[in-house]
Structures are given as structure tokens and as C-alpha cells.
Design a protein that fits this description.
Layout (H helix, E strand, L loop, with lengths): L11 E6 L5 E2 L8 E7 L3 E8 L9 H10 L5 E4 L4 H9 L3 E4 L2 E2 H10 L6
Parallel strand pairs: 1-5, 5-6
Antiparallel strand pairs: 1-3, 2-7, 3-4
InterPro entries: Di-Nase_FeMo-co_biosynth, DiNase_FeMo-co_biosyn_sf, NifX/NifY_domain
Pfam families: Nitro_FeMo-Co
């Protein structure tokens, strides 16, 4: 697979699964809200995206709907993700990370080069 790798300073659109707009606190299959950021030499908030309840769940048929909503994102951060969902997202060129905590702290670690390494 020819996967495009992240290079420090290069802009990357990242989706964070967050119920409260500040912490990564949602399981992939239950994530209703996604905080979208552009991260590169700095970071900027883009928007909040919502997944309709009917498309939430842990069934493969629902993964396509999430993928459609996050189509322009290169990476997703979730509190947890099942193996089949992770494989599906990776097969569709999305980098998947399990994390918890403040979105701002995770972005700081990305900018320091501690995450998304080659």
C-alpha cells in the first residue's frame, strides 16, 4: 500500500472524537461529534461535524457513513476503536490513534513530534 506519510510542518486534517468539544472521550462507534483541526506548523480549529444517530454503531455497514463525514481527514483520534473499524479506516487511508485527554494536549504532542512519527 502506498500510504502518504506525515512530515512535520506539513498540514494534516485530524478528527478528534469528542462529546464536550475539548477532550477525546468517545469510542469510534459511538462518536456523535468530531472536532476537526488542521495541524501542521501550528493548529487551527476547522469545525465540529456531527454523525447522525442512525449511522452510529459497531457494524461495518455504518463505517462508510463515518468515513464519508471524515473524508478529508488524514487521521482520527478516538478513546477506543474495535479491530474491524480500525482495519476499515486504515484500508481507506486514515491513520487511527487511540488516545484520551484534552485535544489541545494531543495537538501539542503532535506539534512536538511525539505523535504521527514516520
Amino acid at each position: 500500500m502506498n500510504e502518504k506519510r506525515y512530515t512535520m510542518g506539513e498540514d494534516m486534517r485530524i478528527a478528534f472524537a469528542s462529546m464536550d468539544n475539548s477532550c477525546v472521550d468517545q469510542h469510534f462507534g459511538n462518536a456523535r461529534y468530531w472536532q476537526i483541526y488542521d495541524v501542521g506548523s501550528g493548529s487551527s480549529f476547522v469545525e465540529t461535524r456531527k454523525i447522525p444517530v442512525k449511522y452510529q454503531g459497531h457494524h461495518e455497514g455504518k463505517f462508510q457513513q463515518v468515513l464519508t463525514v471524515l473524508n478529508d481527514c488524514q487521521a482520527v483520534f478516538v478513546s477506543q476503536i474495535g479491530e474491524s473499524a480500525a482495519v476499515y479506516m486504515i484500508q481507506h487511508n486514515k491513520r487511527v490513534f487511540e488516545a484520551s485527554g484534552e485535544v489541545s494536549a494531543i495537538i501539542t504532542e503532535i506539534l512536538k513530534g511525539n505523535l504521527l512519527k514516520e
